[in-house]
Predict the structure.
Amino acid sequence: MSDGRSPRILATGGRGQLGHHLDEHSRSRLGGGAVAVGRDELDLTDPASIASALDRHAPEVVINAAAYTDVDGAEADEAAAHAVNAEGVESLAVACRDRGIRLIHLSTDYVFSGEVPGGGDPATAPALEPHDPTEPATAYGRTKLAGEQAALSVYPETTIVRTAWVYTGPVRHGQGLRGSDFVDTMVRLERERETLTVVDDQWGSPTYTASLADRLLGLVGGEARGEFDARGLTLHLAGGGRATWCDLARAVFTWIGADPERVRPCTTEEFPRPAPRPAFSVLSDASWRAVGLVPMEGWRQDLARAIAHEGWVAQRERGDLRGPGS
Ligand SMILES: NC(=O)c1ccc[n+]([C@@H]2O[C@H](COP(=O)([O-])OP(=O)(O)OC[C@H]3O[C@@H](n4cnc5c(N)ncnc54)[C@H](OP(=O)(O)O)[C@@H]3O)[C@@H](O)[C@H]2O)c1
């Protein structure tokens, strides 16, 4: 795959936010199309559908963006999450290995315990590296870690890319994406409430899906040109810098022209969830840089791009702000 040509890419989870953006960005980034397939065409829990999708599209690279991503749902039904995130990933890895297809598999910050390393200050504690201990505190994290291990066990050349706090923002509705994400939710709540409280003691790496897709395609393109070889590596790829959810919410308010002081900080204890959220999951980009890859920009720059997305701006100028949550 190092002849400089754009490789044929198949993205799984094609109706999800990353799958959608891989499809969209591959046209501009590689000049070729990634085919993004939804669960209806490639179901990770069905090895026959994996085989037929791979044989039909004959990709050289698979980017696995499909996952059971409902963190609270996984806590209630870990078996369902495990079937997709662990067993399904193993089936995909076997199918890719047997066909000589390069596999890039997406994973998550939830493979870490969420504790601040050394119990230090989360504002300054060292960001997490791939070699730091993985001790997931949630069912979702356990199933994603099991998926990483299964893929590497049956197909050691798989590249694992862990990311975190992924959002698309309000343009997602115009893009036909279902559900919502944190940034999109904050834009909606700004219209609905005078003030809101947002957790200020969980630290992470906000990641704009469009940039994530762009950097993943950079990995595929660079390998095709023979610039580096990331096979078998576990890498971290997320927005630069660090933030609390409250920081992110206030930045959203600022970018849409609202008063950020309307967002009030609260603690995790004041906002309990079925699955415990990590207090600290800031990802370091050192592993990504070490390969020779371009890391993501600071999260504030990327958030500005998400809010300034022309599709969303046009929607706002038309006064058409309704999303599924409205
Ligand atoms: N979102 C985040 O904050 C975040 C953070 C860290 C890591 N990640 C990881 O990043 C990757 C992409 O996440 P995302 O945000 O794009 O998630 P997403 O928007 O929830 O998309 C996931 C997609 O996977 C599909 N899927 C679920 N079960 C499937 C199955 N059995 N077979 C095939 N497809 C299936 C879903 O299909 P349906 O549409 O039919 O349900 C959905 O379209 C995942 O590996 C996720 O774990 C995400």
About this structure: Confidence is low (pLDDT under 50) at residues 322-326.
